[in-house]
Amino acid sequence: MWCLPYRFAQEVMKVYLDGQFVDEADAKISVFDHGLLYGDGIFEGIRMYHNRIFKLREHIERLYWSAKALLLEIPMTPAELVEACLETCRANNLREGYIRLIVTRGKGTLGLDPRRCPKPSIIIIAATIQLYPDAVYSEGMTIATVPTTRNLVNSVNPAIKSLNYLNNILARIEANLIGVEEAIMLNTDGFVAECTGDNVFIVQKGRLFTPPLSAGALYGITRNTVLDCARVMGIPSGEPNLTRYDIYTADEMFLTGTAAEMVPVVKVDGRVIGDGRPGPITARLLAAFRETTRHDGEIIFA
Ligand code: PXG
């Protein structure tokens, strides 16, 4: 039987911008957009795997929660946004890759007041993704804790996935200066919050632990997926406050995030975690996670 030729990604990327598809060179927003002026806006990073948009409904749900926290009214329904994400993948012939969904406060005046911004802008970018090298997954990553503490839940709550990522960028700069790829951020009480773009997990005596959201972590969709996998596999899990001591004495450690998936960590602050190699529970969970990506999410091309 003949197969249809494989469809490659478009030469010129098409970006969804407020209901239209525009060439990437024409995908522009106003310099008066409060997303630019103040970081007033929200976003999601979403993956496509095997012709499906992974956990799309969960990402859209989180986007609406972020919007609600900012009293930002998204000028589309969740169902319309799902369809717009699918259409953006189709317009770019993408079955695998990464979607950046952004809602900005929109064009306003040179003042903070969001009431001066009548119409939020919706941007959807679908692209391929640059992954960590395979060695990171087979040998594990080296990371460090950094001086910048995570935002207070009572100031800029880390649960809001906002366009204001300076807290994380400061931590990322510190990671760069140390020469590591990720940074563990502690909260002001000294408990582990999360990394700059990933949630943190440890394994101790066959049990899985990740910081609670109240410690200053994002309600990570990969985090949730891994906790679901653990439940199905009968691996007990908990969400207690974690200290650096808990990390240093853990048997295994890994990070979770849409871009990173699950990355084993083998060294933190110069200290070897477990036996210095990616652990067996991490490997089992990664296999279960990868399996989930095969059949979860909305189908792009029928
Ligand atoms: N914590 C933070 C602060 C994040 O930004 C995660 C955890 C993981 O959440 P998900 O739902 O993805 O499992 C994120 C999301 C990047 C980048 O360029 C990272 C994220 C989002 C967008 C871009 O590194 N991480």
Strand content: 25-35%
The biggest beta sheet is recorded as:
9 strands, mixed
H-E string: EEHEEHHEEHEHEEEEHEHEEEHE
In CATH's first tier, which class of the largest domain applies?
Alpha Beta
* DSSP, total strands: 16
Q: How many distinct folded domains?
A: 2
Instruction: Report how far apart the termini are.
Output: 19 Å
Low-confidence stretches: 1-7
Bound small-molecule species? 3-[O-phosphonopyridoxyl]--amino-benzoic acid
Structural class: alpha+beta
Helix tally?
A: 8
CATH architecture of the largest domain: Alpha-Beta Barrel
Query: By CATH's scheme, which homologous superfamily of the largest domain applies?
Result: D-amino Acid Aminotransferase, subunit A, domain 2
Rg:
20 Å
**Topology-level CATH name of the largest domain:** D-amino Acid Aminotransferase, Chain A, domain 2
Considering DSSP H and I runs of 4 or more, what fraction of the residues is helical? 25-40%
Secondary-structure map with pairings?
Blueprint lengths: L13 E4 L2 E4 L10 H5 L2 E9 L2 E2 L2 H14 L8 H14 L5 E8 L16 E7 L6 H6 L1 E5 L20 H13 L4 E4 L5 E4 L3 E6 L2 E3 L11 H13 L3 E2 L5 H5 L3 E6 L3 E8 L2 E2 L7 H16 L2 E2 L3
Parallel strand pairs: 7-8, 7-14, 11-12
Antiparallel strand pairs: 1-2, 1-6, 3-4, 3-5, 4-16, 5-6, 8-9, 10-11, 10-13, 13-14, 14-15
The structure holds 3-[O-phosphonopyridoxyl]--amino-benzoic acid.
3-[O-phosphonopyridoxyl]--amino-benzoic acid binds next to helix 6 and strand 13.
